[in-house]
Backbone:
């Protein structure tokens, strides 16, 4: 049921993106939105993990730099039947962890130095097991694509304020303003629904 609901919400989000393209630019806006959505999803599929890790200022570590962390992840992946992901640390005091990657063979697990310092080995293992669960069920790919499409909806809605006065636009100036305000809110709500279902 969870996969069906996620697929349905992703379809709604993509349809919403195409509808905004149509409302702001007519048939040509729909075509541009469709091509843009395809390009974004292709790019997100292949590069999302690299983008997230780069934006987070994460650096990769091995068994020499973080032996305890590496050992915990190695034990958890062996138990779960997963390949060993790349391991990253962010030098930040805020305790946090996340997983990224398009599938278990191309996954990365990242923790902040604050998390490693503040929790016990058992608590750290619990947090990492949770993140590896996301890897195993491919939630990281789903959420990355969702975030990419939701961000694109916000961007195209804002562009509508500047470029939405074409002859093919069926809304008029008031409609463009409403779409520019309401579309990002609706996209965020669908994104939260997908996140909840995962």
Residues:
């Amino acid at each position: 049921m969870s996969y069906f609901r996620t697929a349905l919400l992703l379809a709604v989000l993509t349809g919403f993106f195409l509808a905004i393209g149509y409302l702001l630019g007519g048939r040509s806006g729909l075509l541009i939105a469709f091509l843009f959505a395809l390009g974004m999803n292709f790019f997100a599929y292949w590069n999302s993990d690299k983008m997230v890790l780069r934006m987070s200022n994460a650096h990769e570590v091995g068994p020499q730099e973080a032996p305890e962390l590496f050992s915990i992840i190695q034990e958890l992946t062996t138990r779960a039947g997963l390949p060993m992901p790349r391991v990253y640390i962010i030098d930040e005091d805020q305790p946090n962890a996340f997983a990224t990657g398009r599938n278990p063979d191309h996954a990365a697990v990242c923790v902040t130095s604050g998390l490693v310092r503040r929790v016990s080995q058992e608590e750290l293992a619990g947090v990492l097991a949770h993140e590896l669960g996301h890897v195993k069920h491919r939630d990281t790919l789903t959420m990355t694509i969702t975030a990419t499409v939701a961000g694109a909806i916000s961007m195209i809605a804002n562009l509508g304020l500047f470029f939405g006065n074409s002859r093919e636009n069926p809304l008029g100036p008031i409609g463009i303003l409403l779409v520019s305000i309401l579309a990002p809110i609706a996209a965020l709500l669908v994104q939260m629904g997908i996140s909840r279902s995962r």
Remarks:
- The chain has a mean pLDDT of 80.
- The radius of gyration is 20 Å.
- The chain has two domains: 2-51+140-197, 61-138.
- The domain at 61-138 is CATH 3.30.2010.10 (Zincin-like).
